[in-house]
Amino acid sequence: MFKRNRQPTVVFDFDPAHPKKPNWFKRHKKLSIYLGIIAGLLIVGGTVTAVYFMNQKPEDTKQATTAKPEPKPEPIHYYSPLTGGEVADQAAMAQAVTAIMIENSPDARPQSGLKDSGVVFEAIAEGGITRFLVLYQEQKPQLIGPVRSLRMYYVDWVAAFNASIAHIGGSAAALAEVRNGSYRDIDQFFNASTYWRATDRYAPHNVYTSFAKLDELNAKKGYTGSSFNGFTRKETKAAETPAATSINVTISGPLFNSSYAYNATTNTYDRSQAGAPHTDREAGQISPRVVVVLKVNQTTILEDGYRESITVIGEGAATIFQDGTVQEVTWRKNSRTSQITFTDAAGNDVPLARGQTWITAVPQNKGGGVTWQ
């Protein structure tokens, strides 16, 4: 008989039936460890990569990092060179200034357009009666008056503002100056349609104008902008403890002397004259942000009748009331066309708070002055 050929027994290294024979992993222990580490790293790396791309927005797959947003630019502020008040844009800063002579006799009260103005110069016009040179830039009231005549010292003040000058005639010296071709003279005598006479008052206390008419006239004459140096201005900030809450200004007599009560709520000065609140007929209580009292010398001269002459070119003492404070300074005006300035005892420029500024010239050689408490 033939013996059946036995098939060779195949033993795999990992066969558990042959535990005595070392399997492949034991024989290649170091290699298996390295392979395990590599496999682990591949698995972890793949998982992290998958998670990363699953969490990225489509645009982030192109660029993993995004640029930081640019900071917003600081807003640009524009300020009126007349009042220091904020205006809309650069064009508003350069718009034309218009000066108007407004009467202050008892028959002219209450006036129109005084409250909504930028700078007011007050001085005696004749016989102790005061008159106002009122300057406007960003403000545009539509009823202004009563309009009256011009004096030489008002021309001295207004010359620094490159302004149109609205008035009805004036003293001989004032008219000779404003008609010499160097000024923007818009006298009612030559521009009658820009003014009208009201029917509820009698002449000469009844001539009025408006900025609808004044702007039209200025544009027609090409007076569309003004270039000038205004007062130095600062941000207004009320004093914690006001130093002057009651101010009395002596200028000529009871009908024209004025007073101011500091209003801490509005940080302004409520004006009174002749012992009663000084009001604008349309807009109510007049309350400037800054009150300045200039001490000047005044004389009476013979010029087409008797006229007052006030020296406003030169220098002298002044008192500034603003933010509840009081400061004694020196006013200085070097020439007709230069701007009036204010300096302290050390010679430093004194800025004025932004807002309406009321300047009164009192004749120190005739008893004019100012007191406060």
Task: Describe the structure in your own words.
- The protein is of the alpha+beta class and 373 residues long.
- It has one domain: 3-Layer(bba) Sandwich (YerB-like fold).
- It is 16% helix and 30% strand.
- The protein has six helices and 25 strands.
- The strands form seven sheets. It has a ten-stranded mixed beta sheet, covered by helices on one side.
- Strand 4 and strand 5 form a beta hairpin.
- Helix 4 packs parallel to helix 5.
- The longest helix is centred in the N-terminal third of the chain and has 26 residues.
- The protein is globular and about 80 Å long.
- The N terminus is likely disordered.
Concise structural overview:
This protein is an alpha+beta fold and 373 residues long. It has six helices and 25 strands.
Supply the number of helical segments: 6
Kindly state the number of beta strands.
25
Helix share of residues? 10-25%
Overall shape: it is globular
Overall structural domain count: 1
Structural category is: alpha+beta
Query: What is the chains' assembly state?
Result: single chain
CATH architecture classification name: 3-Layer(bba) Sandwich
Content of β-strand:
25-35%
Q: Could you name the CATH homologous superfamily? A: YerB-like
Major beta-sheet overview: 10 strands, mixed
* Mean pLDDT over the full residue set: 88
* Unreliable stretches covering 5 or more consecutive residues: 1-22, 48-53, 58-62
Question: How are the strands of the largest sheet arranged?
Answer: 7-6-3-5-4-24-17-20-21-22
Q: Work out the radius of gyration.
A: 42 Å
Under CATH at level 1, the class stands as Alpha Beta
